[in-house]
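CO-FOLDING WORKSHEET

Operator: S.A.
Ligand of interest: zinc ion
Run index: 130
Mode: holo prediction, single chain
Checklist:
[x] sequence pasted
[x] SMILES validated
[ ] output reviewed
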Amino acid sequence: MSVYIPVSLRNQIREFDRNRCRYCQRRETLSGIPMTFDHIHPLSKGGVTSFENVCLACRACNEFKGDCVTAQDLFIQEIVPLFNPRTQKWHDHFSWGDDGTRVEGKTSVGRVTVFTLQMNNQVIVTARRR
Ligand SMILES: [Zn+2]
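OUTPUT RECEIVED:
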């Protein structure tokens, strides 16, 4: 769904998020593909267009996330929330694998987010390797 986001809010988000995907950390300048604005809590589930609920996301993360807000962590067999870039810190939930090409979930939140957003799909891992 495409929704109007005021220019001033877009600029505030771009500056705060430093033009990188708040989920997989992909930089717009390296991918050459414009970032999207992700409603962390989707509009379809009552989310609003505000700084607290919108972040930059690469097209892949945004599309794989869709309107998901939770997912099942297969490791602990529980439904847990996806990572919230506005209320949680990336390094608390994710780390980079030894070769720097794969994002690893450190927590349940990290694991379900990596899995749901397919943050280690072959295309992105190959791009990170380059
Ligand atoms: Zn991403």
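REVIEW:
The chain has a mean pLDDT of 95.
The first strand starts at residue 36 and ends at 39.
[x] output reviewed
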